Amino acid sequence: MSSTHTDEAPTPTSGPEAPSSFLLLMMAAAVAFTAANLYYYQPLLPAMRDGLALSDTLLGLVPFATQVGYAAAILLISPLGDVMPRRQLIALLSGLLTGALVMQASAGHGVVLVLGTFLMGLGANITQQLIPLAASLSSSQQRGRVLGTLMSGLTLGILLSRVLSGGIAEHLGWRFVFWMAAAAALVWGLLLWRLLPRENARASGMGYLALIGSMVTLFRRHALLRVSALTGALWFAAFNAVWASLSLHLTSAPLGLNLQQAGMFGLAGMAGIVGAKASGRWVASLGTWRTMGLALLVLLTGTLMLWGFQYSLVGLVLGIVLIDLGVFAAQVPNQVRVFAIEPSAQSRLNAVYMLFYYLGAAIGSAAGVKLMTAYGWPGVMTLCVALSAGALLLHVAMRRADPSRAPQAA
User: Fold this and answer.
1) To 10 degrees, the CA torsion angle through 360, 366, 367, 373?
2) Quick check: 259 and 46 in contact, CB under 8 A?
3) Per-residue pLDDT reduced to its tens digit, 111-139
4) Residue 11 lies inside a defined structural domain of this protein
5) Most buried among 231, 261, 278, 310, by the most CB within 10 A?
């Protein structure tokens, strides 16, 4: 059943306009360093496979466990941000993240590595506490700009993760990447404890199980939430299928790149920063629906390029640029309209949305590696084109579910 009144776009409200420039910069940087942990492994899969003698099944479980852990945290931990101080949650998650990264760095068996990646996914929920916190500190007029800044940090983290991990692993080994990440997680945990505003616990009258169950109610009540979640899951599955299998494609014949060269493909993800920042401005003039439509067209074009130019380095770079540009340009308006549904339930709304988002990522990552080992790059890209086209078709078909498509609604 869809509601008719709570899906409307927000009207200007009193309260803070936005976090201070310094705090917003620190939050964006923390998002970058936290999100990077979810993607360090991507250029490292060949080295992990050789170093630990991983089977194809265990190799595919590395990206799968990372995204499943992240999705589990979104389901079980993210909703707590609506009823308890996020600063306290972030401190606890920082400790978990640091320990999980140490576990990965010292893993002597593939099973231990997979377990470490799962726990790392849980700890990386820090990002999903910072995003609704920034939204709650912002007025409706400034929310697109604020979220655009945090999405730029997210994109930068993904970009740096691939470049750094590939370069470091080539010279110091893949384990050193995770030792470095553990040190960074500890430092950022301490910084966030010092810098984030203190919050009071928000009384909701709900126990933990009721809080978790209320997400089902939100999903059933709001058509806009369902459309946003399913569309995001499709495009992020395509995105992760590409990146999880890209290093395997680049390091295989006939391209034959080394780990550092494969990691440098992460520089093409710089387009995602441009997409996120520009999208934060476009929602004010084009509306969320039109902005997302344009972004999904760009994404589909990118997957088609990767499909058609599989052995051209120039074609692969251009395809990656378009994919990152499209994904992060679509993410900002999608989250803007989700946060507008019920301001009192922003953590739970974000949890429902991101749960679908990262379940899509987990399935896409595992499917990408599996298809790469079975059918090569053409098999991966057939899936990615289908997922991207599906996201665009669903977005167009469900236009009526988005009452915020008018320019003034952003």
Assistant:
1) 160
2) yes
3) 899 999 999 999 999 998 998 888 777 76
4) no
5) 231
